[in-house]
Every structure is written in structure tokens, then in C-alpha cells.
UniProtKB/TrEMBL annotation:
EC number, as in UniProt: 5.2.1.8
Keyword annotations: Isomerase, Rotamase
Record InterPro entries: PPIase_dom_sf (IPR046357), PPIase_FKBP_dom (IPR001179)
Keyword Ligase assigned: no
Family indicated by similarity: Belongs to the FKBP-type PPIase family.
Enzyme class name: isomerase
Gene3D superfamilies: 3.10.50.40
Limits of the PPIase FKBP-type domain: 67-150
Name of the molecule in the record: Peptidyl-prolyl cis-trans isomerase
High-level lineage: Bacteria, Pseudomonadati, Bacteroidota, Flavobacteriia, Flavobacteriales
Length: 150
């Protein structure tokens, strides 16, 4: 019985120290976003969730809610400027409940015809998982143009 408990404890200890452990990127992301804002001489607002956003053009049309379908033209890149995804000028249509949290929240700061930037910490994007060319813990920046609220 004693050997079983020791073996279980070793397995548990080893599992907790694996590379798959969850890391809190909050402080790193905050530092990276602040450096990006300073380097690019930007004026950004921050929401209570930690999302940074810049409204360049608020737009004159309808404002979306968290449950709306929207059409957005965008370019997504890292703080080093490397682009990881981009739509064409016609944009893509999606429901705001089917995207990363940074988009669900961030798109609602614009009206139809609005444009700006979203600076998204990893906890509001892909966090510790990463995804198709996006490393875990990555800060994501999006230039967005809200074409339509559908």
C-alpha cells in the first residue's frame, strides 16, 4: 500500500511538471502590449477584461451586440509585425459568439463602417493552446473594419 501511494505521488508530481502545464502570460502580455503601444506611438483604451482597443473611425451604422452576425475585413499579426491571417476587402461573416473572446468583446466597440485595432492578450485569444501558426501565449493584434452587422 505504501509503495502504491509513493508511486501515485510520483506520477502526480511528474504530471504537474510537464511542458503541458498552464502558464499565466498576463504579465508578459501586458509588458509586450505596452511596449508595442509606446513603440508605435498609439493611444489605446483598455477594457476591464484587459483588451486594448483603438477606435480610429467609430462608424455611423448599427452597433453590434455580443450575439450578432457581423462582416469584418481584418489583418491579424503579432507585435513583431509578422502577419498570421488576413481577409480580403470583402471581409468574412461570422457570429460573435463563435470567435475568440477578444473579438467577441472588441468588435462591439465599433459601429458599422468603423475601423481600428484590437490588441488582444493571449488569455482572450488562444491562451496556452496556440493554434495553426499562433504560438501559445501570443499577443494578437488585429486591424479591423466592421463592414456590416447582419
Amino acid at each position: 500500500m505504501k509503495n502504491t501511494i509513493i508511486a501515485f505521488a510520483l506520477i502526480l508530481f511528474t504530471a504537474c511538471n510537464s511542458d503541458d502545464s498552464v502558464k499565466d502570460y498576463t504579465a508578459e502580455n501586458e509588458e509586450e502590449i505596452q511596449a508595442y503601444i509606446a513603440t508605435n506611438n498609439l493611444t489605446a483604451q483598455i477594457s476591464s477584461s484587459g483588451l486594448y482597443y483603438i477606435v480610429e473611425e467609430v462608424g455611423t451604422g448599427e452597433a453590434p451586440t455580443f450575439t450578432d452576425n457581423v462582416t469584418v475585413a481584418y489583418k491579424g499579426y503579432f507585435t513583431n509585425g509578422s502577419v498570421f491571417d488576413e481577409s480580403d476587402a470583402d471581409g468574412v461573416t461570422f457570429n460573435l459568439q463563435q470567435v475568440i473572446a477578444g473579438w467577441t468583446e472588441g468588435i462591439t466597440y465599433f459601429n458599422e463602417g468603423g475601423s481600428g485595432k484590437l490588441l488582444i492578450p493571449s488569455r482572450l485569444a488562444y491562451g496556452n493552446s496556440g493554434r495553426n501558426g499562433i504560438p501559445r501565449g501570443a499577443v494578437l493584434i488585429f486591424d479591423i473594419n466592421l463592414i456590416a452587422v447582419n
